[in-house]
Design brief:
The protein is an all-alpha fold and 191 residues long. The protein has one domain. It is built from nine helices and two strands. A hairpin with a 2-residue loop joins β1 (122-124) and β2.
Length: 191
């Protein structure tokens, strides 16, 4: 995937910040009643894309540049992001869910764009120190903007999210970044 394609993919990823921001203004039940059907639709589209050549070709015509090769026969990152949003909102209190989801959208996007753009020092697989540090910096800033999430807690949650992003390659990290960050926040905010 070229840097331009990665930029397009991460622009969509970053746009998913709209969901946790919207959640700040909506009740948990309402948010889940909107997200669960969207998630089911996304999963059904991904499943159908694998079975229907016409649908596969149609989606690749418009989105092929931002779909990773490994996603061709599995769920796309979009489906995993929606799943993670449902899981985080269902599991955690509102500020923790929002902070965890901002770690995903802002931190993960920062890691990819910084790592691919200026990363020079490999750390693990195709990941770089620069990308991981970018995740921690921008993830911390995003999570600490959530009322009720102190900076130090946001920093530790961002470090947990960055570790997940760094080491989870065989499994899609989109589900586990907000869960790891959310668990750290839950622990720290309840001490």
């Amino acid at each position: 995937m070229t840097y331009a394609q990665e930029l397009g993919r991460k622009a969509i990823h970053l746009a998913s910040s709209a969901i946790p921001i919207t959640y700040w203004f909506l009740a948990k039940d309402l948010m889940l009643s909107l997200l669960i059907p969207l998630t089911i639709i996304a999963i059904l589209i991904d499943y159908s894309r694998q079975k229907s050549q016409w649908l596969h070709d149609f989606i690749h015509k418009y989105f092929g540049g931002i779909i990773r090769d490994r996603e061709d026969q599995t769920l796309t990152g979009a489906s995993y992001v929606l799943i993670s949003e449902v899981v985080a909102i269902a599991l955690f209190p509102k500020p923790i869910a929002i902070a965890g989801l901002l770690l995903l959208s802002v931190g993960d996007s920062s890691a990819a764009l910084i790592g691919r753009g200026i990363g020079k020092h490999p750390i693990y697989h195709n990941k770089t120190w620069e990308g991981t540090i970018g995740f921690v910096i921008f993830g911390t800033i995003a999570a600490s903007l959530v009322p009720g999430v102190p900076f130090f807690a946001a920093l530790l949650a961002a470090i947990a999210g960055a570790i997940v992003e760094l080491y989870l390659n065989a499994i899609d990290d989109n589900i586990f970044i907000p869960v790891a960050g959310g668990l750290v926040l839950l622990l720290l905010l309840n001490l």
